[in-house]
């Protein structure tokens, strides 16, 4: 019976964390309207989470697109339909790989940076100092980072998909010799607004989830070196699992 | 308000952390306009008392009145309004590491006022001048020494002209020169700005030169209070031990443990 107790204990802990995260989200949402007026704080965080992630997103997008071009070409060639490579790459990237891989990279680059920064602010009393200066850290620190992440994530996913399609074209058209006209025209004919909407919805929801997990873990981290390290690790692990779980749910909803 | 009227009144305060009673029926009156030191051995809850007085944590029982406001009855907004009348110097300074010295001091002004930039600049430079760091305005916190960090934090704590200034262990880890500078600043700011200063510290000699009144905490309550001169003459064994820095006395040096020889022999037997 001890395994049952362990499983029940873990399940109960997960539920408590889910409840605490939801309560934190409500607190953040209530504080958000007044922070929206402070554009400077939000733009600074879009820079920190978005602009500073651009290189890793663009490079990854290029390589993923190139792999997709290569694999897609080899597979489609078996059926004599290499011209469909543009469609396959675009749908794969816009609907699935763009949002998901961007979210995973976002959690690894921007999410960890957010969690460790906020955790260290807690450990060095900076958040307490704000409280003592009658400045709400949720409004001054958490909300701008949360909103910055939500805005940055869909933009990064769009850039990832765009570069990925270029990478697929580079391999498929430039190297493997797929007809350029067919590549682009089939893509334009087959990829609809519905597909793009799915990608946009996914990247927006992943942006909310990954940003929320990062600021939550940082804000509630134990104020020690070990505690901040754990919060950073949890940010990546939780974001990855939640992203993939949500990906399934949204894909099912759009099917 | 007369000089002796209490600006902080703590009544029958009880506070427990993890089953351990930090305070049990604590009563303290901190007079306005004075420099009051709260002292005591490590682990007696001095910093916890500051957190209670500033409303960062809530007591289990009892009441705390600060500047006439009952902390227990205040909403979050009410507490923030009260905190605008308080300044706090944290042990490590707690400067915002992504802002320059100037911006750190300007931070409360930018958050709470719509003052023109020119006026903010003048106010910040005035406060930095009063702590001797006007020339360091453009430095980042990482470029400051421990003493400088605390002086910048002090400038930030007084920039909103608070009524009460609270210092949490302001002398820890400072060299004698920095310590002397901070000591003189505590006294000068208190007298020049008409503040009430509350200092938590266990630097007995230093505090004795600057404090008007000392409260000695031990075992969750006040065991003695008075001027530094009265404290040095206090016949109580615990006051004598603490003020004299003696290892032997009512406050044990050793954390409770099993018999020393017995434990050593048991280990030898085990190996």
Order of helices and strands of chain A: HHHHHHHHH
Mean pLDDT over the residues of chain B:
86
Q: Which chain pair shows the most residues in contact?
A: A-B, 14 and 23 residues
Structural class of chain B: alpha/beta
Uncertain runs of chain B: none
Helical content of chain B stands at 25-40%
- What percent strand of chain B? 15-25%
Structural class of chain A comes to mainly alpha
- First-last Cα distance of chain B: 69 Å
Number of strands of chain B: 10
By DSSP, the count of extended strands of chain A is 0
| Multimer state | heterodimer
Overall shape of chain A: it is elongated
Number of helices of chain B: 10
Question: What would you note in describing this structure?
Answer:
The complex is a heterodimer of chains A (255) and B (271). Chain A has 255 residues and is mostly helical. Chain A has one domain. Helix content of chain A is 88%, strand content 0%. Chain A has 9 helices and no strands. Chain A has helices spanning 2-36, 39-49, 54-78, 85-123, 126-132, 137-175, 180-190, 193-219, 225-254. In chain A, helix 1 (2-36) crosses helix 6 (137-175), helix 4 (85-123) crosses helix 7 and helix 4 runs antiparallel to helix 9. The longest helix of chain A has 39 residues, at 85-123. Chain A is elongated, with a radius of gyration of 21 Å. In chain B, strand 1 (6-17) and strand 2 (20-31) form a beta hairpin. The longest helix of chain B is centred in the C-terminal third of the chain and has 18 residues, at 176-193. Chain B starts with 5 loop residues before the first strand and ends with a helix. Chain B has helices at residues 46-53, 76-83, 101-112, 117-130, 146-158, 176-193, 204-210, 228-232, 237-244, 260-270, and strands at 6-17, 20-31, 35-39, 61-66, 69-70, 86-89, 164-168, 196-200, 213-218, 221-226. In chain B, 37% of the residues are buried. Chain B has 10 helices and 10 strands. In chain B, helix 6 (176-193) runs parallel beside helix 7 (204-210). Chain B has 271 residues and is an alpha/beta fold. In chain B, the strands form 2 sheets. A 6-stranded mixed sheet of chain B has the order 6-7-8-3-9-10, sandwiched between helices. In chain B, strands 2-1-4-5 form a 4-stranded antiparallel sheet, with helices on one face. The chains are: A mainly alpha (255), B alpha/beta (271). The A-B interface holds A 121, 124-126, 128-136, 140 and B 54, 56, 80-81, 83-84, 86-88, 90-92, 94-97, 107-108, 111-112, 153, 156, 160.
